[in-house]
UniProtKB/TrEMBL annotation:
This is Transposase. It comes from Labrys monachus. Residues 1-68 form the Transposase zinc-binding domain. Residues 110-294 form the Transposase IS801/IS1294 domain. InterPro entries: transpos_IS91, Transposase_32, Zn_Tnp.
Length: 359
Protein backbone atom coordinates (compact mmCIF):
# COMPACT_ATOMS: atom_id res chain seq x y z
CA UNK A 1 0.00 0.00 0.00
CA UNK A 2 2.87 2.39 0.69
CA UNK A 3 4.22 1.76 -2.82
CA UNK A 4 0.83 2.63 -4.36
CA UNK A 5 0.53 5.70 -2.14
CA UNK A 6 3.97 7.07 -3.05
CA UNK A 7 3.80 6.22 -6.76
CA UNK A 8 4.59 9.19 -9.00
CA UNK A 9 5.15 11.58 -6.12
CA UNK A 10 8.29 13.47 -5.10
CA UNK A 11 8.94 10.89 -2.36
CA UNK A 12 10.15 8.42 -5.02
CA UNK A 13 12.32 10.95 -6.81
CA UNK A 14 11.97 12.05 -10.41
CA UNK A 15 13.60 13.44 -13.49
CA UNK A 16 13.42 16.27 -16.00
CA UNK A 17 12.98 15.38 -19.68
CA UNK A 18 13.53 17.50 -22.79
CA UNK A 19 12.29 16.76 -26.31
CA UNK A 20 15.06 16.32 -28.87
CA UNK A 21 12.93 17.93 -31.58
CA UNK A 22 10.91 20.80 -30.07
CA UNK A 23 12.75 21.36 -26.73
CA UNK A 24 9.60 20.83 -24.66
CA UNK A 25 10.43 20.38 -20.96
CA UNK A 26 8.55 17.87 -18.78
CA UNK A 27 8.99 17.05 -15.08
CA UNK A 28 8.11 13.46 -14.21
CA UNK A 29 8.01 11.67 -10.87
CA UNK A 30 9.22 8.08 -10.68
CA UNK A 31 6.84 5.13 -10.65
CA UNK A 32 6.79 2.55 -7.88
CA UNK A 33 6.71 -0.32 -10.45
CA UNK A 34 4.79 -2.46 -8.01
CA UNK A 35 2.76 -5.02 -9.92
CA UNK A 36 -0.32 -4.29 -7.79
CA UNK A 37 -0.26 -0.56 -8.61
CA UNK A 38 -3.01 0.67 -10.97
CA UNK A 39 -0.71 3.35 -12.41
CA UNK A 40 2.24 1.14 -13.31
CA UNK A 41 0.77 -1.64 -15.42
CA UNK A 42 0.12 0.27 -18.67
CA UNK A 43 3.70 0.31 -19.98
CA UNK A 44 4.41 -3.19 -18.64
CA UNK A 45 1.37 -4.47 -20.52
CA UNK A 46 2.40 -2.73 -23.77
CA UNK A 47 5.94 -4.13 -23.56
CA UNK A 48 4.64 -7.65 -22.88
CA UNK A 49 2.16 -7.49 -25.76
CA UNK A 50 4.84 -6.27 -28.17
CA UNK A 51 6.92 -9.34 -27.28
CA UNK A 52 3.90 -11.65 -27.71
CA UNK A 53 2.82 -10.29 -31.09
CA UNK A 54 5.33 -12.47 -32.94
CA UNK A 55 4.00 -15.58 -31.13
CA UNK A 56 0.50 -15.43 -32.62
CA UNK A 57 -0.58 -18.02 -35.17
CA UNK A 58 -3.19 -17.47 -37.93
CA UNK A 59 -5.75 -19.73 -36.23
CA UNK A 60 -8.75 -19.25 -33.98
CA UNK A 61 -8.00 -18.75 -30.28
CA UNK A 62 -10.17 -19.95 -27.40
CA UNK A 63 -10.62 -18.49 -23.94
CA UNK A 64 -11.07 -21.08 -21.16
CA UNK A 65 -11.64 -20.12 -17.50
CA UNK A 66 -11.06 -22.46 -14.52
CA UNK A 67 -12.59 -21.38 -11.19
CA UNK A 68 -12.11 -22.69 -7.64
CA UNK A 69 -15.29 -23.30 -5.60
CA UNK A 70 -15.87 -21.22 -2.47
CA UNK A 71 -14.96 -24.05 -0.04
CA UNK A 72 -11.51 -24.31 -1.60
CA UNK A 73 -11.09 -20.53 -2.02
CA UNK A 74 -10.92 -20.12 1.76
CA UNK A 75 -8.00 -22.57 1.87
CA UNK A 76 -6.35 -20.84 -1.08
CA UNK A 77 -6.48 -17.44 0.61
CA UNK A 78 -4.49 -18.67 3.62
CA UNK A 79 -2.05 -20.68 1.48
CA UNK A 80 -1.67 -18.56 -1.64
CA UNK A 81 1.71 -19.73 -2.86
CA UNK A 82 1.01 -23.46 -2.34
CA UNK A 83 -2.57 -23.49 -3.66
CA UNK A 84 -1.91 -21.16 -6.60
CA UNK A 85 0.92 -23.48 -7.65
CA UNK A 86 -1.46 -26.45 -7.45
CA UNK A 87 -4.07 -24.49 -9.41
CA UNK A 88 -1.67 -23.71 -12.27
CA UNK A 89 -0.42 -27.30 -12.34
CA UNK A 90 -3.93 -28.80 -12.36
CA UNK A 91 -5.11 -26.45 -15.12
CA UNK A 92 -2.07 -27.17 -17.30
CA UNK A 93 -2.34 -30.93 -16.80
CA UNK A 94 -6.09 -30.86 -17.55
CA UNK A 95 -5.73 -29.04 -20.86
CA UNK A 96 -2.71 -30.99 -22.04
CA UNK A 97 -4.15 -34.41 -21.10
CA UNK A 98 -7.48 -33.86 -22.82
CA UNK A 99 -5.91 -32.29 -25.90
CA UNK A 100 -3.52 -35.24 -26.19
CA UNK A 101 -6.41 -37.73 -26.11
CA UNK A 102 -7.11 -38.94 -29.70
CA UNK A 103 -10.84 -38.94 -28.88
CA UNK A 104 -10.70 -35.15 -28.55
CA UNK A 105 -7.80 -33.54 -30.43
CA UNK A 106 -4.78 -35.84 -30.31
CA UNK A 107 -2.18 -33.08 -30.39
CA UNK A 108 0.36 -31.13 -28.37
CA UNK A 109 -1.11 -27.71 -27.62
CA UNK A 110 0.22 -24.47 -26.16
CA UNK A 111 -1.45 -21.80 -24.08
CA UNK A 112 -0.99 -18.76 -21.84
CA UNK A 113 -2.44 -18.96 -18.32
CA UNK A 114 -3.15 -15.84 -16.22
CA UNK A 115 -4.12 -15.91 -12.54
CA UNK A 116 -6.88 -13.60 -11.27
CA UNK A 117 -8.27 -13.65 -7.74
CA UNK A 118 -11.08 -11.09 -7.83
CA UNK A 119 -14.65 -10.68 -8.92
CA UNK A 120 -16.23 -7.40 -10.02
CA UNK A 121 -17.15 -6.54 -6.40
CA UNK A 122 -13.52 -7.14 -5.27
CA UNK A 123 -14.38 -10.23 -3.22
CA UNK A 124 -11.93 -13.14 -3.28
CA UNK A 125 -12.59 -15.33 -6.32
CA UNK A 126 -9.49 -17.22 -7.54
CA UNK A 127 -9.57 -18.38 -11.15
CA UNK A 128 -7.27 -18.82 -14.16
CA UNK A 129 -7.83 -17.47 -17.68
CA UNK A 130 -6.27 -19.51 -20.49
CA UNK A 131 -5.78 -18.29 -24.06
CA UNK A 132 -5.41 -21.37 -26.27
CA UNK A 133 -4.75 -21.64 -30.05
CA UNK A 134 -7.37 -23.81 -31.76
CA UNK A 135 -5.12 -26.74 -32.57
CA UNK A 136 -1.66 -28.18 -32.04
CA UNK A 137 1.20 -30.26 -33.36
CA UNK A 138 0.71 -33.97 -34.01
CA UNK A 139 2.83 -36.09 -31.70
CA UNK A 140 5.03 -37.28 -34.57
CA UNK A 141 5.69 -33.57 -35.33
CA UNK A 142 4.55 -34.07 -38.94
CA UNK A 143 1.44 -31.86 -39.24
CA UNK A 144 -0.85 -29.28 -37.67
CA UNK A 145 -3.98 -30.74 -36.06
CA UNK A 146 -6.86 -28.23 -36.10
CA UNK A 147 -9.82 -28.39 -33.75
CA UNK A 148 -13.35 -27.64 -34.84
CA UNK A 149 -14.01 -24.02 -35.75
CA UNK A 150 -16.27 -23.21 -32.80
CA UNK A 151 -15.44 -26.01 -30.35
CA UNK A 152 -12.24 -26.67 -28.43
CA UNK A 153 -12.73 -29.36 -25.76
CA UNK A 154 -15.86 -30.59 -23.89
CA UNK A 155 -16.42 -28.35 -20.87
CA UNK A 156 -17.95 -31.05 -18.65
CA UNK A 157 -14.97 -33.35 -19.18
CA UNK A 158 -12.58 -30.45 -18.52
CA UNK A 159 -14.41 -29.64 -15.29
CA UNK A 160 -14.34 -33.18 -13.91
CA UNK A 161 -10.70 -33.82 -14.76
CA UNK A 162 -9.67 -30.44 -13.34
CA UNK A 163 -11.57 -31.17 -10.10
CA UNK A 164 -9.96 -34.60 -9.70
CA UNK A 165 -6.41 -33.42 -10.43
CA UNK A 166 -6.68 -30.38 -8.18
CA UNK A 167 -8.13 -32.25 -5.18
CA UNK A 168 -5.55 -35.03 -5.49
CA UNK A 169 -2.71 -32.50 -5.37
CA UNK A 170 -4.35 -30.51 -2.58
CA UNK A 171 -4.67 -33.67 -0.46
CA UNK A 172 -1.04 -34.51 -1.16
CA UNK A 173 0.06 -31.03 -0.02
CA UNK A 174 -2.02 -31.44 3.16
CA UNK A 175 -0.49 -34.85 3.92
CA UNK A 176 2.99 -33.37 3.49
CA UNK A 177 2.20 -30.56 5.97
CA UNK A 178 2.44 -27.77 3.39
CA UNK A 179 -0.90 -26.14 4.26
CA UNK A 180 -1.74 -23.95 7.26
CA UNK A 181 -5.13 -22.94 8.66
CA UNK A 182 -6.20 -20.01 10.84
CA UNK A 183 -9.31 -18.22 12.05
CA UNK A 184 -12.60 -19.56 10.74
CA UNK A 185 -10.96 -22.59 9.09
CA UNK A 186 -8.49 -23.46 11.88
CA UNK A 187 -10.47 -26.66 12.43
CA UNK A 188 -9.15 -28.03 9.12
CA UNK A 189 -5.95 -28.98 10.89
CA UNK A 190 -7.98 -32.04 11.92
CA UNK A 191 -7.66 -34.59 9.05
CA UNK A 192 -11.30 -35.65 9.49
CA UNK A 193 -12.53 -32.07 8.95
CA UNK A 194 -10.21 -31.56 5.98
CA UNK A 195 -11.29 -34.81 4.32
CA UNK A 196 -14.93 -33.79 4.79
CA UNK A 197 -14.30 -30.52 2.92
CA UNK A 198 -12.56 -32.43 0.12
CA UNK A 199 -15.49 -34.85 -0.17
CA UNK A 200 -17.97 -31.97 -0.32
CA UNK A 201 -15.90 -30.26 -3.03
CA UNK A 202 -15.79 -33.51 -5.00
CA UNK A 203 -19.59 -33.74 -5.04
CA UNK A 204 -20.23 -30.32 -6.60
CA UNK A 205 -19.69 -29.17 -10.18
CA UNK A 206 -16.63 -26.98 -10.66
CA UNK A 207 -17.05 -24.04 -13.01
CA UNK A 208 -15.05 -24.28 -16.22
CA UNK A 209 -16.16 -21.87 -18.92
CA UNK A 210 -15.07 -21.93 -22.57
CA UNK A 211 -15.88 -18.74 -24.47
CA UNK A 212 -16.36 -18.63 -28.26
CA UNK A 213 -13.15 -18.22 -30.30
CA UNK A 214 -11.73 -14.78 -31.04
CA UNK A 215 -12.20 -13.25 -34.47
CA UNK A 216 -8.45 -13.09 -35.14
CA UNK A 217 -4.97 -12.40 -33.74
CA UNK A 218 -5.65 -8.68 -33.25
CA UNK A 219 -8.63 -9.46 -31.03
CA UNK A 220 -6.44 -11.88 -29.07
CA UNK A 221 -3.85 -9.16 -28.45
CA UNK A 222 -6.51 -6.65 -27.41
CA UNK A 223 -7.97 -9.18 -25.00
CA UNK A 224 -4.58 -10.14 -23.57
CA UNK A 225 -3.85 -6.47 -23.01
CA UNK A 226 -6.90 -6.23 -20.78
CA UNK A 227 -6.18 -9.39 -18.79
CA UNK A 228 -2.46 -10.09 -18.39
CA UNK A 229 -1.38 -7.10 -16.31
CA UNK A 230 -4.76 -6.37 -14.81
CA UNK A 231 -5.12 -5.63 -11.10
CA UNK A 232 -8.14 -5.94 -8.81
CA UNK A 233 -9.50 -2.50 -9.75
CA UNK A 234 -8.30 0.26 -12.08
CA UNK A 235 -8.58 4.02 -11.54
CA UNK A 236 -11.17 4.24 -14.33
CA UNK A 237 -13.72 2.30 -12.24
CA UNK A 238 -13.52 4.71 -9.29
CA UNK A 239 -16.53 7.01 -9.18
CA UNK A 240 -16.00 9.15 -6.08
CA UNK A 241 -14.31 9.43 -2.70
CA UNK A 242 -16.50 11.23 -0.18
CA UNK A 243 -14.96 11.46 3.28
CA UNK A 244 -14.32 7.85 4.28
CA UNK A 245 -16.59 6.33 1.60
CA UNK A 246 -15.40 5.03 -1.78
CA UNK A 247 -17.76 4.42 -4.72
CA UNK A 248 -16.83 2.33 -7.75
CA UNK A 249 -18.50 0.76 -10.79
CA UNK A 250 -19.00 -2.98 -11.06
CA UNK A 251 -20.88 -5.43 -13.30
CA UNK A 252 -23.47 -7.65 -11.68
CA UNK A 253 -23.41 -10.82 -13.78
CA UNK A 254 -26.41 -12.19 -11.88
CA UNK A 255 -28.46 -9.52 -13.65
CA UNK A 256 -26.94 -10.04 -17.09
CA UNK A 257 -23.84 -7.91 -16.55
CA UNK A 258 -25.77 -4.78 -15.59
CA UNK A 259 -23.42 -2.02 -14.43
CA UNK A 260 -23.97 -0.78 -10.88
CA UNK A 261 -22.23 1.46 -8.35
CA UNK A 262 -21.05 0.04 -5.02
CA UNK A 263 -20.11 2.24 -2.06
CA UNK A 264 -17.83 0.92 0.71
CA UNK A 265 -16.14 2.31 3.79
CA UNK A 266 -12.54 3.19 2.96
CA UNK A 267 -11.15 0.51 5.28
CA UNK A 268 -13.35 -2.16 3.69
CA UNK A 269 -12.36 -0.98 0.20
CA UNK A 270 -8.66 -1.21 1.08
CA UNK A 271 -9.21 -4.61 2.75
CA UNK A 272 -10.82 -5.98 -0.41
CA UNK A 273 -8.06 -4.53 -2.57
CA UNK A 274 -5.38 -6.19 -0.43
CA UNK A 275 -7.08 -9.59 -0.67
CA UNK A 276 -5.54 -9.87 -4.13
CA UNK A 277 -1.86 -9.25 -3.48
CA UNK A 278 0.31 -12.05 -4.88
CA UNK A 279 3.19 -13.60 -2.91
CA UNK A 280 6.62 -12.14 -3.66
CA UNK A 281 8.27 -13.80 -6.65
CA UNK A 282 5.12 -15.63 -7.72
CA UNK A 283 4.48 -15.53 -11.50
CA UNK A 284 0.87 -14.69 -12.41
CA UNK A 285 1.44 -15.26 -16.14
CA UNK A 286 2.73 -18.63 -17.34
CA UNK A 287 3.32 -20.29 -20.72
CA UNK A 288 2.79 -23.97 -21.39
CA UNK A 289 3.22 -26.58 -24.12
CA UNK A 290 4.13 -25.09 -27.49
CA UNK A 291 4.47 -21.66 -25.87
CA UNK A 292 6.78 -22.73 -23.03
CA UNK A 293 9.83 -20.47 -22.81
CA UNK A 294 12.39 -23.24 -23.37
CA UNK A 295 11.33 -24.15 -26.93
CA UNK A 296 8.73 -21.57 -27.98
CA UNK A 297 10.50 -20.31 -31.10
CA UNK A 298 11.32 -23.79 -32.38
CA UNK A 299 7.75 -25.07 -31.91
CA UNK A 300 6.14 -21.96 -33.39
CA UNK A 301 8.38 -22.19 -36.46
CA UNK A 302 7.20 -25.79 -36.93
CA UNK A 303 3.57 -24.72 -36.60
CA UNK A 304 3.97 -21.94 -39.17
CA UNK A 305 5.64 -24.30 -41.59
CA UNK A 306 2.69 -26.71 -41.44
CA UNK A 307 0.21 -23.80 -41.63
CA UNK A 308 2.03 -22.37 -44.65
CA UNK A 309 2.72 -18.92 -43.20
CA UNK A 310 6.07 -17.06 -42.91
CA UNK A 311 7.73 -16.08 -39.66
CA UNK A 312 6.47 -12.55 -38.85
CA UNK A 313 8.77 -9.57 -38.76
CA UNK A 314 8.23 -6.42 -36.77
CA UNK A 315 6.93 -3.41 -38.68
CA UNK A 316 10.00 -1.40 -37.78
CA UNK A 317 12.31 -4.15 -39.04
CA UNK A 318 10.43 -4.47 -42.35
CA UNK A 319 10.52 -0.74 -42.96
CA UNK A 320 14.14 -0.48 -41.81
CA UNK A 321 13.31 2.44 -39.54
CA UNK A 322 14.04 3.19 -35.93
CA UNK A 323 11.12 2.06 -33.73
CA UNK A 324 9.15 4.69 -31.86
CA UNK A 325 10.08 5.24 -28.20
CA UNK A 326 7.67 3.91 -25.55
CA UNK A 327 4.68 6.15 -24.85
CA UNK A 328 6.14 7.21 -21.50
CA UNK A 329 9.18 8.67 -23.30
CA UNK A 330 7.41 10.50 -26.13
CA UNK A 331 6.98 14.25 -26.30
CA UNK A 332 3.40 15.32 -25.47
CA UNK A 333 3.63 18.08 -28.11
CA UNK A 334 5.25 16.49 -31.18
CA UNK A 335 5.62 12.80 -30.33
CA UNK A 336 9.41 12.93 -30.52
CA UNK A 337 11.85 11.19 -28.16
CA UNK A 338 12.40 12.72 -24.73
CA UNK A 339 15.88 12.74 -23.16
CA UNK A 340 16.57 12.97 -19.43
CA UNK A 341 18.53 16.13 -18.62
CA UNK A 342 18.31 16.01 -14.83
CA UNK A 343 17.16 13.82 -11.95
CA UNK A 344 16.78 13.79 -8.18
CA UNK A 345 16.90 10.89 -5.76
CA UNK A 346 13.98 9.61 -3.68
CA UNK A 347 13.40 11.39 -0.38
CA UNK A 348 14.69 9.21 2.42
CA UNK A 349 12.07 8.71 5.16
CA UNK A 350 13.00 9.99 8.63
CA UNK A 351 13.85 6.98 10.78
CA UNK A 352 13.62 7.11 14.56
CA UNK A 353 16.69 5.73 16.37
CA UNK A 354 16.39 2.18 17.61
CA UNK A 355 17.48 3.14 21.15
CA UNK A 356 15.37 4.77 23.85
CA UNK A 357 15.48 8.59 24.21
CA UNK A 358 16.43 8.19 27.87
CA UNK A 359 19.49 6.03 27.10
Amino acid sequence: MSAVEMCRTARLGGHVQQCRDCDTIRVAYNSCRNRHCPKCQGQASRDWLAARQADLLPVGYFHVVFTLPQQIAAIAFQNKSAVYTILFRAVAETLRKLAADPRHLGAEIGFIAVLHSWGQNLQYHPHIHCIVPGGGLSFDQSRWVACRQSFFLPVRVLSRLFRRLFLEQLKQAYDLGRLQFFGDIAGLTDPTAFNRIVKEARRIDWVVYAKPPFAGPRQVLAYLGRYTHRIAISNSRLVSIDGDRVAFRWKDYRTGGRQKVMTLDAHEFIRRFLLHTVPDGFHRIRHYGLLANGHRQLKLDQCRRFLGVPTPKSTAEEADIEPLPPLAHRCPCCGGAMSIIGAWSPLQPVRRPAWNDSS
